[in-house]
Amino acid sequence: xxxxxxxxxxxxxxxxxxxxxxxxxxxFQATTMFWYRQFPKQSLMLMATSNEGSKAxxxxxxxxxxxxxxxxxxxxxxxxxxxAHPEDSSFYICxxxxxxGGFYGYTFGSGTRLTVV
Amino acid sequence: GESVGLHLxxxxxxxxxxxxxxxxxxNSASDYFIWYKQESGKGPQFIIDIRSNxxxxxxxxxxVLLNKTxxxxxxxxxxxxxxxxxxxxCAEEGGAGGSYIPTFGRxxxxxxxx
Lengths: 117, 114
Prior knowledge:
The structure holds two protein chains of two kinds. Chain A is mostly beta strands. Chain A contains no helices and eleven strands. Chain A has strands at 4-7, 10-13, 19-25, 32-38, 45-51, 57-58, 67-73, 76-81, 90-100, 103-108, 112-116. In chain A, the strands form two sheets. In chain A, strands 2, 4, 5, 6, 9, 10 and 11 form a seven-stranded mixed beta sheet that branches. A four-stranded antiparallel beta sheet of chain A has the order 1-3-8-7, with no helix packed on it. In chain A, strand 4 (32-38) and strand 5 form a beta hairpin. In chain A, 37% of the residues are buried. Chain B is globular and about 40 Å long. By secondary structure, chain B is mostly beta strands. Chain B contains no helices and ten strands. Chain B starts with 9 loop residues before the first strand and ends with a strand. In chain B, strand 5 and strand 6 (62-67) form a beta hairpin. Chain A binds chain B through residues 4, 6, 34, 41-46, 49, 91, 93, 95, 97, 103-111, 113, and chain B through 1-2, 4-8, 32, 34, 36, 41-46, 89, 93, 100-107, 109.
């Protein structure tokens, strides 16, 4: 089946620094990828839709200058958390859309635990 | 979708029992529904899906029931095992404008006691 690789799985960074998270579709091409954020014991909240070759579409309330998304190829999307602060600490998850037989399937990465100290 | 920001409801069952996890969805125009399982520290995994033209679909040990009249979805797990312990989310897609991006429900934490 479709596999999405997300890296790193855990990262600790200092306040004010930037962190890049990678999301790769390993065995299929994904023109569309999604980035979610999840706080402990809560649901996944969609942050943005990443489109290959064009600008990402951000959900209301998500700062596009803080959460930079780049989708430069059909198999890679990156999320960069710029000038990270402790309140950015969260679990970030990507997913990739795989069109099969006219229907869409979504495969999720294993998530990245970001801790800002 | 369901409210976010609230603590997850919890369902505790004994190993071997059947589990039923419920979900209320919000968009009556949604036409595709998925159940995901999320283990601690991992991303969601697809369990089973159902389209709006069906009211029941069965997989291996799992059954999804859809009641469009009351916008209710349920996941039944037969002979629940400790490895089933996880958080389960329903997601809806489709609807007006054809937005095929999963919208997640609040989630239910399933705890299976051996």
